[in-house]
Amino acid sequence: MAPDPCNHLALRKAARHVTGFYDARLAAAGISTAQFSILARLRALAPVGVQDLAEDLVLDRTTLGRNLQPLERDGLVTGAPCPRDARRRLLSLTPAGEARYAAARPLWAAAQRDFAARFGPDRALALRETLAALVATPLEGPA
Fold first, then answer.
1. Which domain holds residue 47?
2. Could you tell me the CA-to-CA distances from 82 to 48, 54, 89, 92, 132 in Å, in that order?
3. Is residue 136 part of a domain?
4. Mean pLDDT (the chain, rounded)
């Protein structure tokens, strides 16, 4: 398959392809890859403010808010006022969120192994390194 001439289109197609791969594997835990990522980062960072979590996930606050709604509705994530600034909410996993993450973690780990087996472990590592470098590259403002 020839590469797309548009960087954005190529990235979006690859993201949709990989998301479908992971979503199919996480479905047994009743969670999407986007939700798994949020639970995993909350587990590592909590309690964390919405803005800080959005920045960590490279999401805007509105998108993160839409992704948090079902997690909060299902009792997997909770928000509490920040003791130092009541305008800020600090997010944490609930015990149900911990349990859902624990159920999804082995499915995610199997998907990681399967992806590396199909794409190649060295290529998978190089892909993650390239994507990390891309995220660290300032793309706003003049070149």
1. 28-109
2. 9, 16, 6, 12, 31
3. no
4. 95
pLDDT in tens, 65-79: 999 999 999 999 999
Whether residue 4 is contained in a domain is answered as no
Q: Is 128 exposed, middle or buried (0-12, 13-18, 19+ CB in 10 A)?
A: exposed
For the segment 14-36, what is each residue's pLDDT rounded down to a tens digit?
999 999 999 999 999 999 999 99
In angstroms, rounded to a whole number, what is the distance separating the alpha carbons of residues 96 and 104? Answer: 12
Q: How many domains is the chain built from?
A: 1
**Stated pTM of the model:** 0.89
C-alpha radius of gyration, the chain, whole number: 17
CATH of the domain at 71: 1.10.10.10
51 domain residue, yes or no: yes
Q: Output the CA–CA distances (angstroms, integers) from residue 124 to 18, 46, 85, 118, 131, in the order listed.
A: 12, 29, 42, 9, 11
